[in-house]
Amino acid sequence: PSCLGYPLSIFFIIINEFCERFSYYGMRAVLVLYFKYFLQWDDNLSTAIYHTFVALCYLTPILGALIADSWLGKFKTIVSLSIVYTIGQAVMSVSSINDLTDHNRDGSPDNVTVHVALSVTGLILIALGTGGIKPCVSAFGGDQFEDDQEKQRTRFFSIFYLSINAGSLLSTIITPILRAQECGIHSKQRCYPLAFGVPAALMAVSLIVFITGSRMYKKVRPEGNVMVQVSKCIGFAIKNRFRHRSKEFPKREHWLDWASEKYDKRLIAQTKMVLKVLFLYIPLPMFWALFDQQGSRWTLQATTMDGNFGSIQIQPDQMQTVNPILIIIMVPVVDAVVYPLIKKCKINFTPLRRITVGMFLASLAFVAAALVQVQIDKTLPVFPAAGQSQIKIINLGTDGATVQFGPKLQNVNVMSMESTGYMTFETSQLQSLNIASGNNTITKVIKLAGGNRHTLEVKNTATGIVAELLFDNVTSKPEEGNNLIRFINNLPYPVNLTMGDTSFGTLVPLSASNYNLFPGGRKDKIVAIRDSISCSVTAKAFGFGSAYTIVINRCTGDTLNVKYSEDIPPNTVHMAWQIPQYFILTCAEVVFSVTGLEFSYSQAPSNMKAVLQAGWLLTVAVGNIIVLIVAGASKLSEQWAEYVLFAALLLAVCIIFAVMAYFYTYTDPNEIEAQLDEEEKKQAKKDQDVCEKQSEADSQM
Fold first, then answer.
1. Domain count, the chain
2. Which parts of the sequence are annotated with region: Disordered (predicted)?
């Protein structure tokens, strides 16, 4: 059965691919934030595990290809590994259910080990599934066409690539929205089970759709794997060359010719072409090392930025959608506009030059990321080291105050109702505080633990100076753009305080509440109640990622008078500043990735495509492993420096590649095949002639 000149079975395969990619990219989009916020891993561990997972996803395709070609056939491989995949996605979804181990119902899992074990199991199954079916699905699609449908087949691969990007685009938009929802049985959290559950459901849909089309598929029998033959041929050549290493054996033109005792000329010629391309692949992993950090480092970078786009609030993991959106726009534009323009300018933009330009652009994108990071770092607060203490002063009285940090460290003047920023002291040197305000003075002897922040409240009253040293229980900037808010009651009587839906309880005069988390970008109402008399005021917008102390000063009529003191500045660098680096990296991907595969296929015989695809995917895997090694070995404390390091490494590799490309000679596999055919024909004719002569001679006997 066919439709629009295409085999009907194709539509099942395309829907299946769309669902599978939606499932994979959706899960991958929220993965690094799941590690960071749910499993409570730090940035470096989250990045490391993320890249280990991606590397696994690109190593397993080789396994999938071997199973399909040598044993089960493509159809059975896709079905059985999709089942493994679906189970993996389901396990992932279960692993993120907070209520699974949260027995005391405080909103964080009590037994993190259970969640980690389940997550790792899920990820391994997913890597097996997605990797195993990756090389089979597109090839299985190609199998559905007859030999005379070359045009339709090419069109199919374009639609196939589009369905991959449509799937990844939609899921990168939708999954983060699901993650940002609040859900949970006993306590409300970010909804990771839903963010992983929807991809799991789609994977199941994808599997059902694929099996439904079973009757229509053209199923090609497995006929052995080319990779195995090529590896054996190379292995034999090396072994044989080693055996004949002494001078008396004549040299051969190419080291692979040493396999000619056992393997036919055609296989050797084809293997030579493949190795020539694979040799060019050696520098390529460095590109992927940078490219795949969109999902790890760049997403973590977005968590320290301001995601307020007017009425829309962008989640940090949604910035990754910039890539598929741009891909869908750029691929046609580059093909239809950019390349023809370059051609008009009489520049020969060969595939290898395109790949070189791609590498250069990716390196540029990381320079852009480093520049953004430098701007972000300026806004990040500095927290005290182990042997240091930080103190800020809030003057709650009507007189100015002077605080002397003793012995003989520094003097600070604070106006009435004002506050200072945090000042850093060596804990061992700070022993006393001498406070003067109005006509009163007071000396406090202090002994601090170190490594913490404190707030000193000072108020000159009729009975003398009141000085309280508060402990500020904040050691890092609030995550995910939330804000931390606490109150100090500067009224002469106790009040009951609420802000939005959060109650701060009753505060006695001059006491401070604990910090509470509030989502960024909102304006909540502050209400103070005393003996059924209530005063209220709408809080100012706190931005994203800030911490504030709000001082309750007066209640006049029903209006509350408050003063804000900033403890941690909000994220001020806007997420839109990430767009340039995404744009440059997408341009790099278009000229690098699309060209790379086309070039590989044009330089090798058709039956060797599987080997090249395996090699190409291997470069992605190795790239992710490079991230692990570089990030682990570099011990750079500054994130911008790591970006610059990656940019420099890729630039160096890019230069090496340009030199290799300069010495590369393009081959036409069809010509070589034709030569081989010609030689075989001649040989066959020779053999025939010999046979005929022999039989003539026999008949004359």
1. 3
2. 677-701
Name the band, by pLDDT with cuts 50, 70 and 90, for residue 582: very high
Closest CA to 655 of 302, 372, 283: 283
Residues 6+ apart with CB under 8 A from 378: none
pLDDT tens profile 486-534: 999 999 999 999 998 888 999 999 999 999 988 877 788 999 988 888 8
Would the CA dihedral through 294, 157, 217, 14 be positive or negative?
Answer: positive
Residue 3 lies in a domain: yes
Domain coverage including residue 474: 388-568
Tell me what the mean pLDDT of segment 657-668 comes to. Answer: 89
Instruction: Kindly state the greatest CA–CA separation across the chain.
Output: 140
Is 700 within a domain? no
617 pLDDT more than 70: yes
Establish if 352 belongs to a structural domain.
Answer: yes
What backbone torsions phi and psi does residue 667 show, to the nearest 5 degrees? Answer: -115, 160
Q: Are residues 399 and 526 in the same domain?
A: yes
Do 201 and 280 lie in a common domain? no
Q: Note whether residue 273 is domain-resident.
A: yes
508 and 365 part of one domain: no
Distance CA 527, CA 118 (A): 44
Q: Does the pLDDT at position 289 exceed 90?
A: yes
Last residue of some domain: 207, 224, 241? Answer: 224
pTM of the model: 0.83
Rounded to an integer, the average pLDDT of 545-572 is: 91
Domain co-membership, 392 together with 375: no
Q: Identify the CA nearest to 276 among candidates 213, 219, 230.
A: 230
Helix axes 322-333, 150-180, angle to 10 degrees: 160
Instruction: Tell me how far apart the alpha carbons of residues 133 and 135 are, in angstroms, rounded to a whole number.
Output: 6
In this structure, what CATH number is given to the domain that contains residue 110? 1.20.1250.20
Categorize the per-residue pLDDT at 1 as very low, low, confident or very high, splitting at 50, 70 and 90.
Answer: low
Q: Tell me, what's the pLDDT at 698?
A: 81
Q: Tell me the Ramachandran region of residue 346: left when phi exceeds 0, alpha when psi lies from -120 to 50, beta otherwise.
A: left
